[in-house]
Structure formats: structure tokens, C-alpha cells
Amino acid sequence: MLFHLDIVVEYSAQMSQNDLFKIWSQEAEAALEAKKAGVVVDLWKVVGARRVIVIIDVESFELLDQILLDLPIMKQMGQHVQVTTTALRTYEGFAADVNKRLE
Hints:
The protein has 103 residues and is an alpha+beta fold. The protein has four helices and four strands.
């Protein structure tokens, strides 16, 4: 199952930018390992924002939820992280579905 994740990271006034970067460094390491493992299809950092866009391929909704809860950034500062998820389907599958309906 493919999902588009839109992750926005905020941080409290009590946290320094350097503290945020330490956590984000751990998060980046986990994300890049997940990409090597094939779970993360690809990911991008939005320029000029504390925002990351991810395409992820998981077996179930439950697994996606578990992965999100176990992310280093969620464990350490989850109250400041907003994740919007959107289920995706391949365009090829959609096109085949449309063409089948025309038969």
C-alpha cells in the first residue's frame, strides 16, 4: 500500500535549533535506512520549511501507524509533529480500471 506523508515539524520555544537538529539527524538516519530497505520509496525536504514529503510502501494501515509512532522525532517531540497521510494507488492501475470500465 502506497501512502503520501506530509510531515510538518515545529518546536517549542524552550528547544534550541541545535536541539532540533540533533533529533532531526537521528530521524534522517532512520529515514535513509528505511529508504535503503525499500519501505520508503522516496522522500524530499521542502525548501525553506520544516517539512518533509515521503512516499512509503507498507503492507497495512496498522504497520504505517506503528512506523510513525516509532520514529525518533515522534518519540522525542511528537506533540510538535503534524503528519497528514494520503492513500495512493498507481496511475497504471487507475488507467487499467478506467479502460476496463469502457469495455
